[in-house]
């Protein structure tokens, strides 16, 4: 059963990605003002949504680690693995957002970057999680996981600020796709379908690589535990 | 297996170079005001930027997956040598 799921899930994800691509490039109509470059939206926005989801997973993992670290070390290690996996895959998706956004901006606004609230808060979010990953990579000692968990929690505080930035402040970034004012968002049903399929496809892909990263981290923890045991026995 | 992953790891680099080629080398300069071919140039630029953007997305995703695969192979090798 487990083997079937492990084969079937990547296959379904691949089909969803191909279908999402087909919907975005061939089915969705060309936007009248921006032209073809608007199609970047079909993977820029889902990537941002997936990044937010994974930073939330990282937040839950960080809180779990701090909660369990004294009473249940195995649960704490598991929570820590979710925290690092969520942060790392979140950074991958956030990087995509920060590259595809300026590519769209260059054509739509005539410039690569502007220090607008949405763009700046997203860059800050990316920097916080990159520093989280650097801390995990280069810091040593028993307090590293605790420090990383605290940084992970602080980093997640920026997610609602990024989300609300183009509601709280007047920004150059387009209005919110969902939950904005009446005249914002997608009006064309074909565009909405293409967008929905792409959200589904990128969430499925993201969960697949999140699971892979979690498995790699758990194995790393086992290797570290075995090494520590061997060192004690020697 | 490791050779296969290494070959696979070349794909993201190729995609990234392709994106740079689309945006910085092939893309024509933005049309001047009143250029009779403006619509055509704008459409070409939009197409190139969209293609480059998709190439960057897959370069990053596949690059990350290749890095994860290399890490997993390294772990398996470390476990085998420890036994």
- Average the pLDDT over all residues of chain B and give the rounded result: 86
Structural class of chain B: mainly alpha
Please give the domain count of chain A: 1
Order of helices and strands of chain B: HH
Output the helix-strand order of chain A: HHHHHHH
Strand content of chain B: under 5%
Q: Unreliable stretches of chain A, pLDDT < 50, 5 or more residues?
A: none
Mean pLDDT of chain A: 91
Q: What's the overall geometry of chain A?
A: globular
Largest sheet of chain A: none
Low-confidence stretches of chain B: none
Biggest interface and residues each? A-B, 30 and 25 residues
* Assembly context of the chains: heterodimer
Secondary-structure class of chain A: mainly alpha
Our Rg estimate of chain B from Cα atoms comes to: 20 Å
Number of helices of chain A: 7
Number of strands of chain A: 0
Strand content of chain A: under 5%
Shape of chain B: rod-shaped
Helix content of chain A: over 70%
Helix proportion range of chain B: over 70%
Written account of the structure:
The complex is a heterodimer of chains A (234) and B (83). Helices cover 77% and strands 0% of the residues of chain A. With 234 residues, chain A is mainly α. In chain A, helix 1 (2-27) runs antiparallel to helix 7 (189-233), helix 2 crosses helix 5 and helix 3 (73-108) runs antiparallel to helix 4. The relative contact order of chain A is 0.16. Chain B has 2 helices and no strands. In chain B, helix 1 runs antiparallel to helix 2. The longest helix of chain B is centred in the last third of the chain and has 45 residues, at 38-82. The model of chain B has no long low-confidence stretch (mean pLDDT 86). Classes of the chains: A mainly alpha (234), B mainly alpha (83). Chains A and B meet through helix 2, helix 3 and helix 7 of A and helix 2 of B.
């Amino acid at each position: 059963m487990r083997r079937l799921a492990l084969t079937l899930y990547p296959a379904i994800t691949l089909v969803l990605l191909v279908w999402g691509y087909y919907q975005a490039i061939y089915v969705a109509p060309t936007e009248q003002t921006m032209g073809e470059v608007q199609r970047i939206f079909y993977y820029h926005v889902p990537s941002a949504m997936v990044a937010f989801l994974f930073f939330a997973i990282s937040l839950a993992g960080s809180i779990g680690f701090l909660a369990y670290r004294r009473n249940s070390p195995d649960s704490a290690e598991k929570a820590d693995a979710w925290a690092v996996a969520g942060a790392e895959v979140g950074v991958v998706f956030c990087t995509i957002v920060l590259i595809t956004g300026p590519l769209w901006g260059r054509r739509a606004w005539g410039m690569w970057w502007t220090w607008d609230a949405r763009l700046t808060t997203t860059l800050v979010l990316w920097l916080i999680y990159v520093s989280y990953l650097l801390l995990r990579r280069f810091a040593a000692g028993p307090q590293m996981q605790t420090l990383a968990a605290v940084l992970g929690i602080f980093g997640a505080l920026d997610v609602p600020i990024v989300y609300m930035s183009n509601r709280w402040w007047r920004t150059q970034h387009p209005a919110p796709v969902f939950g904005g004012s009446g005249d914002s968002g997608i009006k064309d049903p074909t565009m909405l379908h293409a967008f929905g399929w792409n959200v589904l496809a990128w969430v499925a892909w993201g969960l697949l690589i999140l699971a892979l990263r979690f498995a790699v981290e758990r194995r790393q923890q086992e290797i570290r535990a075995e090494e520590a045991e061997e060192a004690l026995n020697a | 297996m490791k050779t296969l992953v290494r070959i696979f790891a070349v794909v993201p680099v190729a995609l990234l170079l392709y994106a740079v080629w689309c945006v910085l080398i092939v893309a024509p300069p933005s049309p001047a005001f009143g250029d009779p071919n403006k619509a055509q140039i704008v459409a070409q630029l939009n197409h190139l930027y969209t293609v480059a953007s998709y190439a960057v997305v897959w370069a990053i995703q596949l690059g990350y997956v290749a890095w994860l695969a290399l890490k997993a192979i390294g772990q398996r090798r470390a476990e085998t040598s420890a036994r």
